[in-house]
Amino acid sequence: MKSLKRMLYELTMDKDFVALKFLIDRPNVFHVAGATHLETWHSRFLSWLLNPTERHTLGYYPFQRFLMAVAESADENIDDITDIAMLNVNQFCNPEVIAEKDINKLDIDEAEEELEKNEDKGRLDVFFKVNIVDEKEHANQQKLILAVEQKVYARVDVNQCDKYLRKFEETYKDEKFLLVALVPKSQMKESNEATFGSSKWIGIDYQQLVDIVLMPCLDNPDLNIYAKSIIQQYVDALRMPYKNKREKLATIEEERILVRSIYDRFEDVIKAITKISNEDDSEERDYVETVVTETYGDVFRTIRWVLDEEHDVDEIWNFSRNIQKRWDELTIIITYEGKETVINNENVPELWTKTLQWIEEQGLQLRQLVDEGIMLGSSDGGKRYAIAMKPVHRNSREFTTIREYQSIITGEIYYIEAKINPESAMLTIAKLLKKLGVGVETPLLVNS
């Protein structure tokens, strides 16, 4: 039997592993300039791309693709957004695109500017204004405002989002506006309302920007040959890890193909790495950690990111056990009819199974809630179900990782979305129990 060291050696010598390393390491102008994740650069790039008058020669195509990404993530009015995205480009006129616009100067006359100086400053990263012409009545025009707030290192500020929303509702009450936040996927919660404080904000992540906007732009035959390298360089910048090399903003199809090939042939090595990462400290574990997190850290980080993105594995290696240890045992404390019950388990699907079984044993009305669909998270405003009668989310996407629970009362199968993090699972369970009139405590969430 091969040793783990030998297995790691064969993996790192593999042609696809080497190709992935070369892909990750290829030179990038944003990285050379030391501004890979500088938010100003992101704002300038996006305003350039969305501006139909710029010399990328794509016209309104990037703007329309961006609206498609927005529609995919909207909690409501999805059809309204897609209708605009599908309009004939001749119906757009008088575009104005501004990077880093002060929201306190939206439609303010010169005489009033002095009054605004004492207000808290707020700066939108991209401000896009365009008129939409009615095809039948050319004199009829509707103004569309697209405002984009970008986050890379900074966290979403709900108070800031509320301030921007109130400003837009006041300034553009007679116009159509879209408030869009472009943020890392790790900042997105179960719904726009949970993430930004209002469903009127629409959040998209950088992976959607790459898949729905940037890659189609690169494939567009109308793209200026000199502009193509700019977009490609920006895509490469998004693939570079940020937050002290812990996260990536996006991957590309070329990376996914290589990772899929590597995993198909070296699945046993990946599982061995996962296994040893959960074991006690040893010389072998220290060696594997050095190879995985330091020597080939960027390559293994990309492998892990893609596998998690495609939900191919339920558990991937994590050598930072001091962080993960808090979630080793998930505990729910239930108080019902004067009796306290503790439900715990080491993984999300089993915690759900035990909880659902307890609910049915008490004769509580679970079936109706499952029929309506139990939304993931602490609110009901999202698009993803935690449990439903069919393994399909509200946005028509299928469950990523399906677990089944057979009702002990009706015999029906309830479908559980198992690919959710422990925190979201516990928040959802707590919400469900409270709806059923059950007292519930989640010590781990309180301690967090």
Topology, please?
Elements: H1 4-13, H2 15-25, H3 29-32, H4 39-50, H5 61-73, H6 78-85, E1 92-102, H7 113-116, E2 123-133, E3 141-150, H8 158-171, E4 176-183, H9 192-196, E5 201-205, H10 206-219, H11 225-238, H12 253-277, H13 283-295, H14 297-310, H15 321-324, E6 330-336, E7 339-345, H16 348-361, H17 367-372, E8 374-375, E9 385-388, E10 402-406, E11 413-417, H18 422-435, E12 439-441, H19 443-447
Parallel strand pairs: 3-4, 4-5
Antiparallel strand pairs: 1-2, 2-3, 6-7, 6-12, 8-9, 9-11, 10-11
Description:
The longest helix is centred in the middle third of the chain and has 25 residues, at 253-277. The protein has helices at residues 4-13, 15-25, 29-32, 39-50, 61-73, 78-85, 113-116, 158-171, 192-196, 206-219, 225-238, 253-277, 283-295, 297-310, 321-324, 348-361, 367-372, 422-435, 443-447; strands at 92-102, 123-133, 141-150, 176-183, 201-205, 330-336, 339-345, 374-375, 385-388, 402-406, 413-417, 439-441. Residues 108-120 and 322-328 have low confidence and may be disordered. 33% of the residues are buried. The protein has 19 helices and twelve strands. Helix content is 46%, strand content 17%. It folds into three domains: 4-23 and 242-319, no CATH class; 29-109 and 118-238, Trna Endonuclease, Chain: A, domain 1; 327-447, no CATH class. The strands form three sheets. The protein has a five-stranded mixed β-sheet, with helices on both faces. With 448 residues, it is an alpha+beta fold.
